[in-house]
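ingest -> validate -> predict -> emit
validate: passed (alphabet ok, no gaps, 154 aa)
predict: started
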Amino acid sequence: MLVEQLPPQERDGLDCYSRALYAFALLGQSRPEGLALMQQVLDDAGDHVKTLHVLLHGLWLGHDLPGREELMLQILDRPPFASRTDPIALFREAAALRALGEYRAALEAIDRALDLLPHGDVSVHADLVRERSLIATARDVQRLVGRPVKGSLE
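emit:
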């Protein structure tokens, strides 16, 4: 990675968004050192929505990171996303909740994302529909194997 070729003092001197992109690359590869860098970026980023989105995307890709889902939900609780009006943030929230087995809450998040998505955004719509299918399938598999589904009325 090009950033890794920089001397540490230059790498640490990068702006917050550039460091978030570096963290994204590490997180997306499930490299644990990305978690420490992510925390540094979060400490500096404040509520910069684009920086937070980059980190969320990296966590979303990093399936083997410990505590991944909880970290995503912590970022999603920050003020830029607290109103739950960002369809991409809701998409990430639904994925995290699905991975935690919180299927009802995941369906609510993805349905809200679908409602908020601007008309004509076909490629993103397909991603949201795919996530909704994954949630429903995971929930149904839990039911088939006889495990109670969290938040279920059954």
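The mean pLDDT is 91.
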